[in-house]
Amino acid sequence: MERAAVVSSRRSPSVPECNISTSTLAFDQHFTTTAKGILLLAEIVFGMLVWILVGGTEYFHLSALCWVMFVSILCWVLTVCLFLIYLTGTHNRIPQVPWTTLSLCLNCSAAAVYLVTAAVDAHSVNQAVRGRHNYNCWAASTFFAFLTTLCYAGSSYLSYWAWKTTQEQ
Asked: Which residues does the UniProt record annotate as the domain MARVEL (predicted)?
């Protein structure tokens, strides 16, 4: 029994202990009330409606609607990630990343691609029989695709002004 006490008292960590504190993600409640936060939320909701409305139909028979699904889901995932980055304040904790430039590039490219996608979606509505399930869903998805395009255009405008003011400093 004495030996066990001696052995346990001799054990000391060979590596000094580091004081590693764990932090929880911060939540910026003010961000959701800003114009940028509201536009990001609108992009998420409208973009989700686009891919849900198209995904609930037999879209895979038209390759144009496969493009609509690809763009809407890709932009939706990227927008959700960007929203979470701004909501949790990660953009303040990682200053090495040029967040204003990244946001500008994402929003401008999403606005351009979504405009083409909305036009393709609108053209594809003619492939369905009026009054049927596919027609109604594709027409509604076209409406929300154009709304999403407007939201991305608004976010592009805000991102441009944020980028411009950052460049002037």
From this structure: 31-164
The rounded distance, in Å, linking the Cα atoms of 134 and 55 is 10
Q: Which of 99, 102, 44 is nearest to 73 (CA)?
A: 44
Q: What is the pTM of this model?
A: 0.81
Neighbouring residues of 3: CB distance < 8 A, sequence distance ≥ 6: none
Structure tokens at 144: 């929300």
Instruction: Concatenate the DSSP letters of all residues of 96-164 into one string.
Output: TS-HHHHHHHHHHHHHHHHHHHHHHHHHHGGGS-TTSHHHHHHHHHHHHHHHHHHHHHHHHHHHHHHHH
> What are the tens digits of pLDDT across the range 111-121?
999 999 999 99
> Do 46 and 155 meet the contact criterion of CB atoms below 8 Å apart?
no
Is-contact 99 91, C-beta < 8 A? Answer: yes
